[in-house]
Design goal:
This protein is an all-alpha fold. Helices cover about 70% and strands about 0% of the residues. It is built from 15 helices and two strands. It has a two-stranded antiparallel sheet with strand order 1-2. β1 and β2 form a beta hairpin. It is globular, with a radius of gyration of 25 Å. The C terminus is likely disordered.
């Protein structure tokens, strides 16, 4: 297992290098960047001092060089004005729009983003798996119909609309906080039990809003997969041999039906981050999504490039975790040198 993980890490490093090239090439497809656009606007107004500062920043961050050289300086494989000072050296670049280091901008939103999406993943799995399994075992009963109704509502309701409804009625009925990541009095304060409780309370509405669609889709797919497994001969044989109904479902059919959902872990976290941008805007959540959206609009290439690269790395790590979990859940899967993976 350790040898397999090491091989995968080497492969992931190569994959991430290729992805970084693609990301940098794509964000540079539109003409210019934040600084060159700003220089054009300043030249129209004649502000020479600001033009000189923008031109200095262009040279300081090697944005006046060819694109291939800009990429190598950004990664840290080519010397810039300050020598080798790129991502490999721990320098993630500068956000020209926000006039701050990329690390400082991202660090503020990253922890809340990761925490929120981990809670959303737990919500999705802890609600979808029991409901989907019950709907399959009790097919064509009121439990199945109720689960189907929940699924249809979750899939058909737009996230932003559900956010608005939940913010209004949740606050009116049970006093759920409206938007934000925590109460205002805890902003810029050190972590404490009261601050942690405020953060968790503010997460209730976003978790339900962001996770509902994923929960509904997973629940319906698990029901279909489990119904297919329950109809196979080995389940009938187990029942004929006197295996208890609960054990007959959990021992093999449920484990086999779970394989696609474990494999989905690699894609679930990045999908939640990218898919929650609109919800984050509506609910004023301090996540990374709105920061990425703003950076792409303003062509703030270092900030947008780092966030996209981070999401890509998250996908690769998630795929590794899903492959390892698949090997644990399904004894037919072996992580051998010849297999090269769980898929």
């Amino acid at each position: 297992m350790l040898a397999y993980i090491l091989r995968r890490c080497v492969t992931m490093a190569g994959t991430l290098a290729v992805i970084s090239v693609l990301i940098f090439a794509i964000i540079n497809l539109p003409e210019g960047n934040y600084l060159t656009n700003q220089i054009r606007e300043l030249m129209a107004t004649g502000e020479q001092g600001s033009i000189a500062k923008a031109q200095f920043l262009l040279a300081q961050y090697s944005l006046d060089r060819p694109v291939w050289e800009q990429y190598l300086v950004w990664v840290g494989l080519w010397p810039g004005p300050d020598g080798f000072s790129g991502m490999l050296q721990g320098n993630f670049g500068y956000s020209f729009e926000l006039d701050r280091q990329v690390y400082d901008v991202v660090a503020e939103a990253m922890w809340f983003t990761i925490g929120l999406n981990l809670v959303v993943v737990l919500f999705v799995y802890l609600t979808a798996l029991p409901l989907g399994a019950l709907a399959a075992v009790r097919a064509n009963t009121w439990i199945d119909y109720l689960a189907a109704l929940i699924g249809y509502i979750g899939l058909a309701t737009p996230n932003f609309l559900l956010a608005l409804v939940l913010m209004y009625y949740g606050n009116k009925a049970v006093g759920l906080p409206i938007g934000g990541g925590m109460a205002r009095e805890f902003i810029d304060q050190p972590m404490s039990l009261e601050k942690f409780g405020s953060i968790m309370l503010h997460m209730v509405a976003p978790v339900v809003v962001i996770g509902t669609a994923g929960m509904a889709g997973m629940m319906r797919r698990l029901r279909a997969n489990l119904l297919d497994e329950l109809g196979k001969p080995y389940v009938t044989t187990a029942a004929a041999k006197g295996v208890s109904p609960t054990r007959a479902v959990i021992k093999y059919p449920l484990r086999m039906a779970l394989n696609p959902f474990i494999a989905d872990i690699g894609n679930l976290l990045p999908q939640l981050i990218s898919g929650s941008v609109l919800v984050s805007v509506v609910m004023s959540l301090p996540t990374i999504g709105p920061v990425l959206l703003s950076a792409l609009r303003s062509q703030d290439i270092f900030l947008s490039g780092f966030i996209l690269l981070f999401v890509s790395a998250l996908t690769l790590v998630g795929m590794l975790i899903s492959d390892i979990l698949l090997a644990v859940v399904d004894p037919r899967i072996r992580l051998s040198g010849k297999a090269g993976g769980a898929r």
